[in-house]
Specification:
elongated, alpha/beta, P-type proton-exporting transporter activity, 8-stranded mixed β-sheet, 1027 residues, 35 helices, transmembrane helix, ion transport
Amino acid sequence: MLHSAESIRFIQEEGDDIVASMRAPRTNRRYRTKAFSDISDMLNGAAPYNSRMLPHDREKLEQIEEKIRDEIMNATTKSGRKKTKSDIAAMMAEGLIEGTPQRSPRKRQASSSDVVTKFGYAPQLGYDDLNMAEAVVKHGNIREREKSDLSDIIEHKPDEIPDDFKYNHVGFTSEEAAELLEKYGKNELPEKVIPKWRLFLDQFRAPMPIMIWIAIIIEMAIQNWIDMGILLLIQFTNASISFYELNKAGNAVAALKNSLKPTATCKRNGKWEVTDATLLVPGDLVLLASGSAIPADCRVNGSEIDVDQAALTGESLPVTFYKGDSCKMGSTVVRGEVEATVEFTGIDTFFGKTASLLASTGEVSHLQKVLMSFMMILVVMSVTLCLISFIYLLVGSVPVQEALSHTVVLLVASIPLAIEIVTNTTLAIGSKALSHHGAIVARLSAIEDLAGMSILCSDKTGTLTLNKMVLQNLTPVFRDGENQESVLVYAALAAKWKEPARDALDRLTLGSVNMALLEDYEQLDFLPFDPTIKRTEGTVRNTKTGEEFKTTKGAPHILMNLLSDRDTKVKEKVEAEVVRFGEMGIRTLAVAKMDLMDGKNEWKMIGLLTFLDPPRPDTKQTIVDANKYGVNVKMVTGDHLLIAKQTAKTLNMGTKIFTSENLPMLDPETKQKPPDLGKTYGKMCLAADGFASMFPEHKYLVVETLRDLGYSVGATGDGVNDAPALKHADVGIAVSGATDAAMAAADIVLTQEGLSTIVHGIVIAREIFSRISNFITYRISATLQLLLFFFIAIFAFHPIDYTPEGAEEEWPEYFHMPVLMLMLITLLNDGTLITIAYDYAEASLTPNKWNKVVLLITSTILGMVSCVSSLLLLWFLLTSHQPNGFFHKLGIGGVDYGQITTAVYLKVSVSDFLTLFSARTGPLFFWQIRPATILLCGGIIALTVSSLLSIFWPLSEPDGILTEGLHSNLPVFGFVWFYCIFFWFLQDLAKVGAYKYMYKVNFNNIKAIPKVEEKKPPPPTDEEAVP
């Protein structure tokens, strides 16, 4: 049997009685064995018939039944396996047994309401040539089939109409339509719209904003207005940036809704009228005419139309629909006019089910989870230590208001307020770099997901290949004197060569032929493509010689049926060539000629034109590059298995290409994925190098299966049917030329064709990941330094005990710093950190993965070295008036308390900046990776500002704390700088030593290289391949 492109797809369900499906041979194919009553039903007319067969009668049926019994008992297949009743039933349904009644074949589309088929490259051909190759391999060549009483291989795959569906030829009355509208609801997609003001207010409800609100309330309660204003500024800045990014991403469901056409031509009260498409109901009679949009999922009542489904599938070629075929909402009629009956409306349509899948994700991005986990650790630590400090101060007879003010200042200073601002800014700057390589980022956190992506499920057509049929040099001929040029001429004569090409095959033929060779011919008659004959035919005359002949082109098996029974050898040669090219994934188009001058009127096969959609020139190297970076590329295509296998072979992607038969479907009612998806199908999906003949839902299920196994998965797509997979993948990538719905569902939209753009994006994303990881390491270490320093200082040092003799007033009970100084440290550091987005970074050769434990340990080491050095400096300063004090021994002398406060501010500020240059190099010393010029300049400016502030700070008492600049004691200023640099080297040495030890013992699997190839199990056994 040979299926057309439309009928090749089927849904394999439990109890499925479809036994006539022709696909590439696979082991352990499971069919339900047909009972003999089933075979009798077929003989009695239930089976399709062939118009070339004689009308059946009882005697003929008895002969066929006897032949079937003989076949069951004696016949063997080419492989030697005995034929079963199931085999014979399949042959009968396929028309392979002579005498079986069978209807005239017609090309149809698979009609499941949940399926939008990605069709072949031309309505004339579909996949008939490839299906023929599979059938010949399975059943043998024409002589072998004749020996087994098997006739020509005839394609047919009847469409199934649901039992509860009824055609409407008269329309509804207004009352009937209103009643059904009340029952089914409007023909529109439900959309949950969150008001903009609600989105903005939601930005203030996260854990970190709540902490800031508490601090603001406390500052307001103690009437500390300046500090409260600073906190409000930080709060609204964070919220505004987050709201902007949320609002910019857009809404995929809204894009789906906006892409629909709002009107329809409907028959109501016996009259045709243009009505609002949202008022259509199931069972309505609608008119589908050229140029009109299909307003709901409809079944064609009769005749045929050509429909553009680009908005659904991304494919540009129109598809022909016949009586009973289901055409989907959102597509457009490009030729013809038919009446149709509405089958589904609103959420029950293909569009509606796609929208429900898009709206069901609700997942928080991986980067958000990581940031939240780090922030929660710091917040819990900050709250705990600050609460202990507050209780200690109260017990120490410090006034409540003073203790509360200090605690709030410490709490706010220790929380990484700007971590989201700096992270989002780094991602935004990185997204700009990605745009220069043809990748527009719709969701900023997708950059981090792209850096960690280990599996990419890629489309074939247009991404791996050119999406353009190219004529091949191999042209088998079956008559002496013919060659590729002459075959092309005959093929062109079977078309309207003086008019624009009507389909892809005409474009291929007329675009390759030497048009000068057609000048001597005139066309007497032309028979366009028709589904009953499945070929085109031209009657022409040579104006110079007067020769008249017919020429035709079409699928090989169609033209073989035109040949005389005496041309068995030619038929064998044709079949052999079709099989040979089919195994290479190369398409074939047959060309034949009938001489009208010799009186025989016999068709003679001329030759076969061969063509394919070749891989893009850069695809093979791009896949090599992707593998080098630890990304396994899996092909996921709706194309034929043989084409997918050849493409994968050409690109060295592997040979394990599976069809969708082994994958489940979503629940037809709830549209939920099957339970234990990863456990049941994970091994097969990991072992596969690709999938062919995929249903729209299968890409989504493959993505979900791999994600269930813990992999970070990317997916490419271009049509509405790809939108669910793009939405649920860790990284959804809409390829160049994608539909609006696919782009709205995607995280990244490509503006350039091919896979190379994605690989460039992976490299850039990993560089960005490195920058963000360095920043978070620094931010945690800076927070630990500040928090632990003030916490320990409260318990370990009491400045009042170090008050020198003769001082005008006693020093404070405990050491603390004005809010303004703390905010200056935070703002200057975080402001400078934005330049880290431009820092030099090297992309990892393997997918990036957050090792939180290692990051926290590294941050703790950096922070503790800074903290210990700050505490030591504070002790040096407090004991500077004592004869045995370190400063006294250096000859610097005693330092006033106001300058002690300023000196500590300078130390904390400088250490913070220098820690950044240590954190940015990971396991290497800080001098081994040169910083970017802009980062270096930013650091110099910030250090200069901090130094100048420490020198020229006026004598004042902000927050009741005495502060004074170091302009009158520059030796202290110089000592602090030398001290910071000395401990910076010690800090970096401790960091590198810690990394070397962790690598040596492989602490927390720090040396793990998550290569996907190492995780792939061996190919599944026959039992495992079919869950």
